[in-house]
Design goal:
The protein is an alpha/beta fold. It has a domain of 235 residues: Rossmann fold (3-Layer(aba) Sandwich), CATH 3.40.50.150. It contains nine helices and 17 strands. A hairpin with a 2-residue loop joins strand 9 and strand 10. The radius of gyration is 21 Å and the shape is globular. The termini are far apart. The structure holds S-adenosylmethionine (SAM). The site of S-adenosylmethionine has 19 residues, from helix 2 and strand 15.
């Protein structure tokens, strides 16, 4: 039986013994798949190394991977033990070799890690892909350290399979309150006046400070020990995929990638080795049918932390939002999404 929770505690912790209905929706993949028909929009229970070897080549548009970091951690009783650097490097090489053939030529991949694991992941990733960026996510929660700086960040590496890839900049703008409302000829420059305040939709940088980890009072929260928030995954997915694309998460955990894909009208395939986590993933996928909201992403823009009242005011005043969306810098061009070999992309910002 699940333990009794406080009234506002929404944590999903359905035990395996009560989750048969969800488990029945998951599949095992034991035979080579000629196409994605049998695995699309499914949670696959199994070892990602085995499953990926059976999926069709060049079929995936985006991979979001959140593998166990090089820390000793228990996932539902299965302990991942901290490895020597060379061994974690080999582990990373092994799973990247398994997913590489699955990606389409214009596909992207994102890999999450902590600062220490990041030193290894970035290096190995560059053996397989074009590394584009290293995003640093300011992760508020963390244990204090007595003789070191408390860890308050994680890295997310962004890489592509070729120099031909998509990046949907307009889909990932951040709505910020205007502190210094600069005007030209009395008119707002690159911002909009609304009845709820003055706002600007800004280009996102590789430093993400607007995302919390899931808390127990959030509908998306589960008892998974390292769950990512839907807002974080939504940013990645909106930037690097389009509606109808296929997104693969080879280390699905509590199902965040699949849930966000469903909410954003992408196809998903999630692979997870622990049946318990597959239950929570399927339970969340069911919940997404009646609640497609992604906390912090409202009216097609991402909002800063602690702006819930403004988000609510905005979604009830769609007219104001429209004027903001039209507020774009006219003088600078959007970056092209296909670039020549060996050049770096420069994004504009304001
Ligand atoms: C860091 S967690 C991912 C958390 C996930 N992003 C979420 O939001 O819940 C890594 C997950 O990978 C799973 N895992 C570890 N090795 C695996 C393997 N070889 N195949 C499939 N899943 C694996 C673990 O059980 C764990 O749930």
């Amino acid at each position: 039986m699940a333990t009794v929770k406080a009234g506002r505690n929404k944590t999903i912790d359905t035990p395996l013994s009560e989750g048969q209905i969800y488990l029945d929706r998951c599949i095992a993949v034991t035979q080579r798949q000629v196409d994605l028909g049998g695995v699309l929009d499914k949670t696959v229970i199994g070892d990602m190394l085995d499953v990926c070897s059976l999926l069709p080549p060049k079929s995936i548009d985006l991979i979001i991977a959140d593998p166990p970091y090089n820390l000793t951690k228990s996932f539902n009783g299965t302990t991942f033990t901290k490895k020597k650097e060379a061994d974690y490097e080999e582990y990373t090489r092994q799973w990247l070799s398994a997913i590489k053939p699955l990606l389409k030529d214009d596909a992207s991949i994102y890999v999450c890690c902590d600062w220490e694991t990041s030193l290894i992941v970035g290096k190995v990733l560059s053996e397989f892909f074009y590394v584009r960026n290293r995003i640093t996510w300011q992760r508020e929660k963390g244990r204090g350290a007595k003789a070191n700086w408390k860890n308050g960040m994680e890295d997310i590496w962004f890489a592509t399979n070729s120099n031909n890839y998509r990046f949907n900049l307009d889909a990932v703008k951040i709505r910020k309150k205007v502190i210094a409302p600069y005007r030209i000829d009395g008119k707002p420059k690159d911002w909009a006046e609304t009845k709820n305040g003055n706002y600007r939709d800004t280009c996102p940088s590789n430093f993400w400070d607007d995302i919390t980890i899931p808390f127990w009072s959030m509908a998306e929260n589960t008892a998974h020990p390292t769950q990512k928030s839907e807002k974080l995954i939504a940013k990645i997915m909106l930037a690097s995929s389009s509606k109808g694309d296929v997104v693969l998460d080879p280390f699905l955990g509590s199902g965040t990638t699949s849930v966000v894909a469903k909410k954003l009208n992408r196809h998903y395939i999630g692979i997870e080795i622990e049946a318990q986590y597959c239950v929570w993933a399927e339970q969340r996928l069911e919940m997404a049918e009646s609640n497609p909201d992604i906390q912090g992403y409202v009216d097609g823009v991402f909002w800063e932390r602690n702006s819930l009242s403004e988000q609510n005011a905005s979604s009830s005043g769609a007219k104001n939002t429209k004027s903001l969306k039209e507020c774009k810098r006219k003088t600078k061009k959007q970056p092209s999404i296909t670039e020549p070999e060996n050049t770096q992309k420069t994004l504009f910002d304001f």
